[in-house]
Amino acid sequence: MIVVSDTTPIISLMKAGQLELLQKLFGVVYIPEAVYRELTENEAFSEEVRMVQECEFLYVEEVDNGKSVTILRKFTGLDAGESEAIILADEKHSDVLLMDEHKGRQVAKKMGITITGTIGILTQAFDEGLLTREDVEGCIERMKESGIRISEKLYQRLLAQLKKND
User: Fold this and answer.
1) What digits encode the pLDDT tens for the residues 66-111?
2) What is the CA angle 34-39-45, rounded to 5?
């Protein structure tokens, strides 16, 4: 399975204390250079920077077609990480792109790229028996406490899914 990730799902899973879910679910996750920079250039988050730098299942890849990234950024307003993640997912013919941002998800869908976000990752981990319902609810609370926004509608949909499959 080929999986490419944008920045936010990685940050969200770190904040939830569940970064290793990516390895358990997908084995290897590819990130473009712009995502790596976004994850490692902020010195205020030295612990998170260290986690990313030492992470053995995050593989940094260079996007082959930089011109496509430039065009995507120019016409969509997406940032470098989102744009490179979408282009890398397309270039690698990925099975799934991990992305949370609404605008980026819309662009990727229009390009025919399969997408899931942090909530989808937590749901999949629950479905595969890697997390309990209480674990997932704890992850969401830690994410909210650290400032990660989750819409109430999405949260309620997640809770309903967990109850249905519990």
Assistant:
1) 999 999 999 999 999 999 999 999 999 999 999 999 999 999 999 9
2) 150
